[in-house]
Amino acid sequence: MRCPFCQHTDSRVLESRSAEAGQSVRRRRECLLCNRRFTTYERIEYVPITVVKRDGSRESFDRSKLLRGIVRACEKTGVESGQIENLVDEIEAQLQQQRFRREVTSNDIGELVLSQLQAVSEVAYIRFASVYRQFQGIRDFVETLNDLQNQSDRLGSDRSPTPEEDNSPRKSADDPRQLTLNDSPQDSPPVSSLAQA
Ligand SMILES: [Zn+2]
């Protein structure tokens, strides 16, 4: 990181601390040449995600498309729109965290959605599964229902929707993910916000 005062490229880190609700690391640095101090921020770089569709074609990840699909599945299930937004945020954040590959299959996304929907609404889960897994008939519904039943049996839950939701971190109003997703593509200074000592 180039010193903003003398342009020297070597500095030492005096202090690192988490900033912006854990979305970045703030570092105090001291230039090894002029000894002046400055601050840098390190953030995760958000890279566009490519979705490989069933037919092998590719398109860039479209958040609003995902949102529409989930909204449709949640129609008249009592799932609130804020909850759906959080769900989409969560899925998008998980996709962003798969750092090693920039491509995901529509299959991966569908399974991610299902894993999230399961805790939110069983009706929405079945609806989404029927579209995304392209159910052909009643047998597909029955199989999925059985899977769902087995899973909730294994969890020992009698299907009250509260437990998973209440200890979910997604509910907080100042969800840091939301900040990042909204802030990242804008023209804010990229990695190095420089401030004088
Ligand atoms: Zn310097």
From TrEMBL:
Where is each ATP-cone domain found? Answer: 49-140
The UniProt regions of compositional bias labelled Polar residues, in chain numbering, are: 179-197
Q: Which UniProt keywords apply?
A: ATP-binding, DNA-binding, Metal-binding, Nucleotide-binding, Repressor, Transcription, Transcription regulation, Zinc, Zinc-finger
Record's InterPro entries?
ATP-cone_dom (IPR005144), NrdR-like_N (IPR055173), RNR_NrdR-like (IPR003796)
List residue spans of unnamed Zn fingers: 3-34
What this protein needs as a cofactor is: Zn(2+)
Q: Where is the composition biased (Basic and acidic residues)?
A: 167-177
Task: State whether keyword Transcription regulation applies.
Answer: yes
Q: Name one GO biological process term.
A: negative regulation of DNA-templated transcription
Q: Using the record, list the residue span of the signal peptide; answer none if the entry has no such feature.
A: none
GO molecular function annotation: ATP binding; DNA binding; zinc ion binding
Which stretches does the entry tag as region Disordered? 151-197
Q: How is the cofactor bound?
A: Binds 1 zinc ion.
- According to its UniProt record, which protein family does this protein belong to? Belongs to the NrdR family.
Describe the function of this protein. Answer: Negatively regulates transcription of bacterial ribonucleotide reductase nrd genes and operons by binding to NrdR-boxes.
Q: What name does this protein carry?
A: Transcriptional repressor NrdR
Look up and give the organism this protein is from: Oscillatoria acuminata PCC 6304
Starting at the broadest rank, the lineage of the source organism is: Bacteria, Bacillati, Cyanobacteriota, Cyanophyceae, Oscillatoriophycideae
What gene name does this entry carry?
nrdR
